[in-house]
Specification:
This protein has 579 residues and is of the alpha/beta class. The chain folds into three domains: 372 residues, Glycosidases (TIM Barrel, Alpha-Beta Barrel), CATH 3.20.20.80; 53 residues, Alpha-Beta Complex (Oligo-1,6-glucosidase, domain 2); 81 residues, Sandwich (Immunoglobulin-like). Helix content is 29%, strand content 15%. It is built from 17 helices and 18 strands. Helix 6 links the parallel strand 2 and strand 3. The chain is globular. It starts with 6 loop residues before the first helix and ends with a strand. 46% of the residues are buried. Bound molecules: 1-deoxynojirimycin. The site of 1-deoxynojirimycin has 9 residues, from loops.
Amino acid sequence: MVKSLSLKALATTTIVTALLFSAQPDASAQARANKPQWWKHAVFYEIYPRSFKDSNGDGVGDLNGITSELDYLAKLGVDAVWITPFYPSPQVDFGYDVSDYENVDPQFGTLADFDRLVKEAHTRHIRVVIDFVLNHTSDQHPFFKESRASKTNPKRDWYVWRDPKPDGARPNNWSSSFGPVAWTLDEKTGQFYYHYFYPQQPELNWRNPAVERRMFETVRFWLRRGADGFRLDAVNYLFEDPSLRDNPVLPELRPGTTTGEHLQEKKYNRDLPEVQDVMVRLRAFNDSVNPESVLIGEAYVPKWEELMRYYGPSDNGVHLPFNFFLIMEPARSKLDANVFRSVIAASENALKGRWTTYVLSNHDNPRHYDRYGDGRNNDAIAKLTATMLLTLRGSPFLYYGEEIGMVTTEPKTIDEVRDPVGRRYWPANKGRDGERTPMQWDATANAGFTRGTPWLPVPPSARERNVAAEARDPNSVLNFYRQLIALRRRSPALLDGDYASIGTDPHVYAYRRRARGQTVIVVLNMSAERRAFMPPRPASGPQAYAIALATQDVRMRPFVAGELSLAPFEAVVLETRNR
Ligand code: NOJ
């Protein structure tokens, strides 16, 4: 339950807690250990604020638009929203280039709008997680303007500046994620500055303790305003090798990739050990302001062992390092039972009981509706993948619109492209506009997103695929998500249970979740054929399996005895009940 605490109440609670800690350290530590962490049971919902709902007709979504749709989110059943950046920004990277960490960009609203959003969300028991872009600022941030003013400016060392090589070349061979190179020469002072992303996103120098102190204050600022946690942007890029050694160049460009980032192994500018030290200090700082605030780390790393480090040496780092292994190859684009079984096995083996996240879509990747869809059974497949996402052992992250089966709608011409990376690499890479199109609320002009001109065109699919139409259709993707989330919320096995994979059928991915006297079996037919599945016997004699939810057949049988026949792409959730 979210409590809307006033600042005064919060301060009092903190003092009382501190007194309790000093008086009875053991009892209090025990109480903390026993307290369920809200984010373990939460369904998160990512909102890209530009595209969710526009309240003032300027064609860009805003905070008041989000507030106006909180009832929709409450009905969907989500426990927390994660809102991507809404801070003042030149919007080169649509908010991921922040020019003021402690304000709201006028196109998204005001601080008062944020306060109202938090209050209204908390009233509906929805937590509010916000983005913290701590690796880089905008080049228009006053910190960077000062830093670039002269070589002797007190903030010079807040960013990563280096002299050119004697021949005038850039300091090393590092490439930028958005291509091509990660260094830009500042003509005025004759030095290069480092930016892993766009040149308008200079990297902060986290080796400077003043940077850390100042950035941590941002955490305090938003927690005091009622935020419930942070998604930490690009956190694995915080540190660079001090001697700036060249990255090893990979022999080939991976097929299908078009930006510079896969040309080299990011040995010297990604995941340096110092990152983990900052995460531990950030966690301590976060907990000292609000121990319930959650830290969610964005780190696309190729191996589980690298991701595990984010939990901290004694689970004192990031609470939830984002698990992207369902968005990455081999699970990214192929609906294949063996692949999912082995990717989840790798997660479970690495985690050793720790909590994780699961996600299929976000604002940086094509939507999974069409990544997995076969063009004929897309809705069935969307329900199947939703069933997996919401029943694995971890906190699921939904991306706005996936609950109505929104499709990726790429720009048709280069003139339409808004994401700079799409303009640079058109047509091989059309950028990320396709997954950022406006939310489809109804069948009216502009899908009910705005009364103005939307910043990105509304996809033609909005005429049939929208919240209003799907709310009326009992078999819609939307109503399926609602049922699934409701089922998850009332199921101890789905919330807390352990995980065990069942069987080896190459077409059917099945698993058991078990907790406190309840067992749930999830059966996912990932093929276009009918398949049979034999559920294992329930552990307790008087219990039997009942169908809690199925994506296709309307099943009236109260209990399942013997073999289960699955329709193509059908998902079935069984739960034990007493006969
Ligand atoms: C990751 C964000 O998700 C992405 O949208 C952004 O472009 C980069 N970080 C840079 O901030």
